[in-house]
Each structure stands twice: as C-alpha cells, then as structure tokens.
Amino acid sequence: MKTLLIILITLFANISYSNDYFNALELFNKRKINESVKLFQNVAKDKENPKRSDAMFNLAIIFDNGFGISANKTRALFYYEAASELSNIYAQYNLGWKYFNGENVNKDVIKAFQLYKAASDFGHPQAMYNLAHMYYSGTGTVKNLKLAYKMFLNAKISGIDESNYFINKISQEITPQELLVLTEEFSSLIEEKIPLPVALENNKSD
C-alpha cells in the first residue's frame, strides 16, 4: 500500500520562510488546491527551506492522485524523485513501491530495493516490512534469511503485525542452532518488546 496521506505538521516553525508551507497545508485542507499547489511549489524551489522535501512530497501526492486537480503522473514522478534525493522517507517509500510494481515507471526491483532500504534506514515501518520480504525472497537482492529475520523484527517492533507470520516461518526454515544465534544477536533490538520463537535444544541425557 502506498502512503497516501498528506504530511500534517502540528508544530509551529519559528523560521519565517516556513510560513508558505503551513499556509499551503491550510489551503489544501480548505480545498483551495490550486493556491495550495502554488505555495508548495514556492517552498519546493527554495533550497534554504527546511520543509522543501515535504513540500515536494505533498506535490507528488496531489499530482499522483488528482486531489482537486487533474492527475499528472509525470509531474508526480518528478516530485517523488526530487524529494527522494533529499532523503524524504515517504517519497522514497512511494517511489520504491512504484518501481517494485512498475506503476508509471519501468519495473525495477533493484531500484525498489535501494529506495525501500533508504526509507527503512530512517524508520519507515512499511519500508522495513517490504525490504524484509525482498531479503526473504531474494527479490532485487541476494536472498538472506538473517537480514530478513532482522528486518521483520524491526517492522514488528514498529507496529507491522504481519511480520509475526514471517518471523515464525523463518524460525521453522532454519536450524535451532541458527535460530538461537539470531535471537542472541538481535536481543538488543528486541528488548522484550515482542515474543520470539523458542529454539528447541536437543540436549536430553541418555
């Protein structure tokens, strides 16, 4: 699923040149889309504005989905790319989704992997989950159950409950010894936040 929500920032910035960004959000919420787009574009052009990548992402969402204006997939892609280059994790995730599914771009699972990884490195939960899938299946990268296990754990801790299925699945596909090593290695990640499969040890005395 793509991220479809406009980023809503509730904190007020002290920097005066951020005003256009918050005014654009207000105009969008009032359904004054054309005026909102113009202000977002002003922010997107301002290299000194800390909200620049957020404005680009919002423009991408507006053009991608046709919120109050005609959809324009080419312009949406331009803003997704621009925001991604500025390390906007929401843009990176959406763009990764597009490359993975071949929506309005040539399908490129390697590019999708790179974008999901960039977003997951900075805490995007669904990007973590999708990246884990790619490690698990070997799509866009070399299959790696260890990294898949780690990323599913991260996704689970971040609220993606579907990760449970794959955490348990991987635990059944590897040996008890390998599971024990993984559990110990990632214990600092887990911090008892989620239950893990138990590695069964065959150490009964004769």
Overall description:
It is a single chain. By secondary structure, this protein is an all-alpha fold. It has helices at residues 19-29, 33-45, 52-65, 73-85, 89-101, 109-121, 125-137, 145-157, 163-173, 176-185, 187-190. Helix 2 runs antiparallel to helix 3 (52-65), helix 4 (73-85) crosses helix 5 and helix 6 crosses helix 7. The protein is elongated and about 60 Å long.
Sum up the structure in keywords:
elongated; 206 residues; mainly alpha
What's the gist of this structure?
The protein is mostly helical.
Structural topology:
Blueprint: H1 19-29, H2 33-45, H3 52-65, H4 73-85, H5 89-101, H6 109-121, H7 125-137, H8 145-157, H9 163-173, H10 176-185, H11 187-190
The total of helices stands at: 11
Overall pLDDT confidence: 86
Q: Structural class, please?
A: mainly alpha
Please write the string of helix (H) and strand (E) elements.
Answer: HHHHHHHHHHH
Give the DSSP E fraction (strand runs of 2 or more residues): under 5%
Radius of gyration: 21 Å
Largest sheet: none
Which segments are poorly predicted (pLDDT under 50) over 5 or more consecutive residues?
A: 5-15, 199-206
Number of strands: 0
Distance between the termini: 53 Å
Shape: elongated
Helix content: 55-70%
